Fold DUF839 domain-containing protein.
Amino acid sequence: APGKPGSRGLLGFAPVPTSSDDAFTVPPGYETQVLIPWGTPLSPRGPKWRKDGSNTAAEQERQIGMNHDGMHFFPLGRGKEGNRRGLLVLNHEYVDQQLLFPDGPTEMTREKVAKALAAHGVSVVEVEERKGVWQVVESRYARKVTGTTPVEFSGPVKATHPKLRSNNAPMGTLNNCSHGVTPWGTYLTCEENWNGYFGTEDSSWSPTPEQARYGINAGGFGYRWHLADERFDVARNGNELNRFGWVVEIDPTNPKAKPVKRTALGRFKHEGCTVVESRGRVVAYSGDDQDGDYIYKFVGDGNWRAHRALGRSPLDHGTLYVAKFEDDGRGTWLPLSFGTGPLTKKNGWQDQADVLIRTREAADALGATKMDRPEWIAVNPKNKDVYCTLTNGTGWPGEANPRTPNPYGHIIRWAEKGKDHTATTFTWDIFVLAGDPAYDSSVDLNEDNIFGSPDGLWFDDEGRLWIQTDISNSSQNLASRGYDNIANNAMLAADPRTGEIRRFLVGPRGCEITGVITTPDRRTMFVNVQHPGEASAAWGSPSPANPRAVSNWPDFDPEGRPRSATVVIRRTDGGVIGA
Ligand code: FEO
Ligand code: CA
Ligand code: CA
Ligand code: CA
């Protein structure tokens, strides 16, 4: 029968009930293993994790960072060996300074800023299944890309651009949320809420309109790094922030290669960067996760293999577009090209570099459609439909954001004209409106699949759509927000052919679920648990004296602290995950 394990659709597991437990729960017939929690040495011989948060900045440089997010598995070895051995490459979005330091963030020092920067960025770690257990192994590829790693700029915006000249050399990537993978085997890490790291004590400073459009203000998100490191003081080093908001390319098999910021893809709060090919060209989709911001795509010029053959990056040559959704179910991609439409000298635009540095303002000028916080984008391998999570938001005008306000979010879907990702028109519909019918009768979900605030989104090769949720801790488990029945964050699987959705796992308290990938045989899945134990309106606030106030996952050590981690999920019968 539909909805039951063994039915003929893509989903063959029993739905997991909602839960507010401090546990990671999977369906019957599945097993889990915690891998690479924050602080795990990149090499088995590296510095050991200290559970009181006292690892130094230098030690953190050689350990897995904090707050795991987007992730990919690059198989190593030949054929089937790649199902048991590979490089896990994962983002570390931000740091919780309450957990990062033994005494919390009260006093900010140079060493604390250095440790925080070392816990950001990207980890490349080699993992292997030995005797049924996944483990970190010694590797020539293991590396960290952090907030201080030297980086290059490529594409229309050069490192020498007057707006990018700062008091320090180009370095670092910050707030790496989701990611992408190129057809030539590199990893793209995306800079999302980078604005929050900058601030100043200078009361004479105020943001320019250009800075304000990106959310720059004197207080930032409260990291207070600017008190100990001039790099983050907007009054003293104001151009440093123009080096952030980009997509950054990393070659996981060349640990000596500098990460490259690919400026042709635009500057905003890039959630992710989903790359597909169409007619030999490369196309990259990316959401700008801010309430009322936009969905973009980059379309490469010419054949990507031809660019590579000439030693050029296919991501440096092409056109950036922003989406406009019409209420009749049609849509258009508007080019952000200097000299086109309103983006002229007469209107104050200098050149393509200027358009890219001020991507948001350029998209405003084009009249793109404001959206309810665009998050991950995934492409159905079976029919090329494109899906984007809109996590929650104001409920901006137009049918593409159909609920006002929109506390639960939705997933929008579009088909490019002629199933060609380079097309400039498309048709769209709403795949699912998230929520709880107990609070919103327009929601067509039930106890097996109620969810809210969809964020992570990924298709496996068989066409299962995996949906991950990020209900913020101001709403998670709270009846006052209509989120008590939905409870902890979760991951669901959907069959896009039938519309069926089932809850596959539920995470521990205070966390979000984000980042999912399988081995090529789809029999091992890796999923990230981010910020377990984050301060929560449902359970309280951690402090240096009680870092376990909300959660003690995954160690459950009475003297430890909650840690973000990757969870390995397998079927006890060795079958395909989700089938
Ligand atoms: Fe980092 Fe928009 O989630
Ligand atoms: Ca997050
Ligand atoms: Ca996210
Ligand atoms: Ca989110």
